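Section 5.1 Outputs to date
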Amino acid sequence: MLKVLMAGALAAGAAVPLAAPAANAAANVLVAQADAAPTPVLNWSPCTEEGIRQYECAVAEVPLDYAKPHGTKLGLAVLRQRATGDRVGTLFTAVGGPGGSGVDAANRSLVPGEVATRFDVVTFDQRGISRSRQVRCFPTPEDQARFWETLPVPPINPAEEAQVRTGSKELADGCARHSADLVGNLATVDAARDMDLLRRAVGEKKLTYTGGSYASYLGEVYGALFGDRVRALQLIAMIDPVAYTHSNVATAWERTRGTAGVFAEFARLCTAAGKPACAFAGPDLVKRHDSLLSRLKHAPITVGKGAAAVQVHYQHLLTSEVPMLYDTREGWPALASLLDAVERGADGDPAVVRDILTTMAYRPDFMSSFTAITCADVTHPKAPDAWPLLAKLFDVVGPDYGRYWLYPGQPCASWPTSPHRYTGPWRLRSDVPALLVNNRFDPVTPLASAVKAQRAMDNARLVVVNGHGHAVNTKCTDRIMAGYLIDLRVPPEGTTCEPDHRPFTDGV
């Protein structure tokens, strides 16, 4: 019976793909609309914001609605780092989310090593994000912050489920009201067409691109539409474009399994490392972890004593835990410290808890952008009441994690279908295969998604890193990616890399 219910839930969220001739005709229209738009003029000047003054900045005027290529414009914030060596061309890059700011990410780094010396590196804030007309879903920033602070996602009882359903509808209605002309033009196909205009603006005949996580999907969309304009497409931490577009319930199912698998690895390696390397090490680690979450479903746990004490709720722990599983070097030890402090309760260190929960909290504007762009791209059941049932089904494969991945999509049940979104086909028609890189254990883009993405793109080579987490940064992958981006060297089929760092070790 469970399999029947799950199959019905997946089918309820699935769109019917267009037949090949109709799909190709629709893609041709999307490309023609972009080709009809004027090429933006980029007046580069030194960036003025703190942390990015070493770069050049510009604003690109692109169509708000590509169906009206000469109509109202939208200003994209664009940033460039100049090549310092023998220049190959321009490398475009974007960040994940959706909702992340490319300009903000440049405050940390753009691309590593030799690649940075050989390319002008260009990134941007995608439409609806930060400096590129941040999507607004609330009357004031204070209202936005209050909404996200009080929404109990994921919910743990019928009262919270009702609250989240009401809040999800309120969010969808608010975005439609406060960003009325924008929300219908936020699909990733719009961002892909923006990127093609930026390619034209910097004078490149073909696009060289690198992006990971959600930005891998941006690359997949660009490659599917503009394959003949691709020089190199290097994608990390892969999204399966078919499931993502046609049934995000299926994507959430894969992510639930992926997160459960990564936590099992966290538990295994933490236990093997022992204390002090892993603060939560000890007997029955998985049972202790599950017991903590179970306790939190009934009541918050107070960590510390007196005025410095911190009250930890179920949502605080779960929504911090999953992102910390992304990163083995800093995230996994921090997660172990958080679990240890919460388990100790009054004897735990509230400063550790406060620091971790503050660091892991998402910005409210990120959450609004994430929701608006995701709902523009994906297919969810248009039935808000379905989420509690889906959550119960997901609990079978990944208790807690299923709810974590499901409930951010509930606003999409009340979201209008984007008139521009792209739904395939996904074959990459380029002279050089795409290079895909994925960790073997990834909580959000599991290896199974990368395998499916390779199959959908057809013209792609997959490199697997025998490591954990969402980020892929090793000497091996850096070398492969540099060879691909600079010299168009495609690694042999079946190439694998070993991680430089093993979890809960100080050595590299």
